[in-house]
Amino acid sequence: MGRVSKAQAQENRQHVVATASRMFREKGTAVSIADLMKAVGLTHGAFYKQFASKEDLVDKAIAHAFEDPSAHSPVGLEEPGGDHEAARRTLIEQYLSVWHRDHAGDGCPVSGFAADLGREPDQAARSQPVYINGVRNRAARLATGDDDGMAQLCTMVGALVLARATRGNPISDELLQAARTALTGIDSGRGESQRHAD
Q1: Is 32 left (phi over 0), alpha (psi -120 to 50) or beta?
Q2: Residue 1 reports pLDDT greater than 80
Q3: 56-61 — which CB contacts under 8 Å span 24+ positions?
Q4: Which member of 34, 64, 127, 149 lies 3.0 to 4.6 Å from 21 by CB, making a disulfide possible if both were Cys?
Q5: Span between the terminal Cα atoms of the chain, in Å
Q6: d(Cα 38, Cα 144) in Å, to the nearest integer?
Q7: Which residue, 16, 28, 21, is CA-closest to 117?
Q8: Does pLDDT of 193 surpass 90?
């Protein structure tokens, strides 16, 4: 088998990082290198040609998740002159939706990586700067007037984590609805059937 070109190696590396980012958000960073490389369609040995360690890949996967515009970044919040309140409500409804609850791999990295970083102090020390910056940026997108958005983000992430933990029981939907109502003042199930519009 011939050597892989530099361009192909770079493409493979990007594919591994993107796949790891999704798999880690969905299943946690305990996903094995063998399972990850199988999902990518590359050999286990190819991993060590691309990354120094699994911890190195986790760092890159977290950074990728925060850079990925499709990871729950509804259009409108960054648009100058846009209706910030309407965009904020859209973000809240999409974030606290059944679709987002059930698709962690494509979802927000704040909730997706929180448990792993909380359990793994060495990984947290390495990845915290990127993670903290991501948390601050997401909170800022929810900010209104004197509210810096932190409490809103905490409510959203907490409700989503609880809803994922109770999936399959009616309380899961109740948790999402309670948080949506608390944050928007609107008591309706409108966001439940809607897939996020990223």
Answers
A1: beta
A2: no
A3: 57/16, 57/17, 57/20, 58/20, 58/24, 58/29, 58/116, 58/123, 58/126, 58/127, 59/126, 59/127, 59/130, 60/17, 60/20, 61/17, 61/20, 61/21, 61/24
A4: 64
A5: 40
A6: 45
A7: 28
A8: no
pTM listed for this prediction: 0.82
pLDDT-wise least confident of 61-70, 132-141, 152-161 = 61-70
147: which strand partners?
Answer: 144
CA distances from 138 to 49, 77, 143, 151 (A): 34, 10, 9, 11
Least trusted range by pLDDT, from 55-59, 85-89, 121-125, 188-192: 188-192
Name the amino acid, one letter, at 130. V
Per residue in 76-92, pLDDT (tens digit) is 344 555 688 898 999 99
* Adjacent-strand bridge partners of 144: 147
Per the CB < 8 A criterion, the answer to whether 20 and 57 are in contact is yes
d(CA 179, CA 155): 7
**How far is residue 190 from each of residues 131, 148, 155, 183, measured CA to CA in Å?**
31, 26, 19, 14
